[in-house]
Amino acid sequence: MKMRYDAIYRDILHNIEDGTYPYQTLLPSENKLIDVYGCSHNTLRRALAMLAAKGCVQPIQGKGVLVIHRQPAKAAFIVGGIETFKETAARNHLLATTEVVTFEQLEVDQSLADLTGFTMGSQLIHIERVRRLNGMRLIFDNNYFLASAVSGLTPSIAENSVYEYIEHVLHMSIATSRRMITVERCTRRDQELLSIEGFDFLAVVSGWTYSGKGELFEYTQSRHRPDYFCFNDTATRDVANLESPSGKRARDMLSS
């Protein structure tokens, strides 16, 4: 049976992360990988395109596919795409546990509407969770879920994985998350719940997450101890767009 492109992607990614394919070396040739996975050229190329989009590899014309992923020098909680906490912890090879400290239903007032983007009067499930990594209390998650979108949600589900419940029990698709990263001073609540270890600031990731129907169903603020936080993104330079008339106008405006 031929392997799917996403399974091939995950297997090559695992080999990159564990050092089987080291940093700044070329992956095996396309023909070799096709033999290994028993797949078509198109399937393999889709998997390699996913790795390139993630910033793990870079195709070099005339040479092959170069590994450009580097493991962090120390254990870090590397945030990237839309993942569950368990998925992110497993990818970072960290032992993770979750403690639910608040689970309540509330109605959106003006200040909460301004913070979260939910309309006034909406019913939300508010959850506070402390995330332990390798036994240390390093992340404080403040979650607001649209109550109508997460019917049946319980504290025990929140302790395990809300996203697994949403996708596999409620069968709702999770499509898009818009994120903002800031650095903020520790609050008294942070000091109560986290192993601060002398830090007076935290890395804060605020996120607005939308379903496949375009409905905002979650606002979350994740507060991270900075020495165990890393945000991972991949950017590419769109030369074609820069050379277009609109791109030139934008560049001229910036340089004027």
TrEMBL record:
SUPFAM superfamilies the UniProt entry points to:
Chorismate lyase-like, Winged helix' DNA-binding domain
Q: Which UniProt keywords apply?
A: DNA-binding, Transcription, Transcription regulation
The HTH gntR-type domain, residue ranges: 2-70
What does the record give under GO molecular function? DNA binding; DNA-binding transcription factor activity
The UniProt entry's GO biological process terms, in alphabetical order, are:
negative regulation of DNA-templated transcription
* Keyword Transmembrane helix assigned: no
Q: What is this protein called?
A: Trehalose operon repressor
Q: Which organism is it from?
A: Coriobacterium glomerans (strain ATCC 49209 / DSM 20642 / JCM 10262 / PW2)
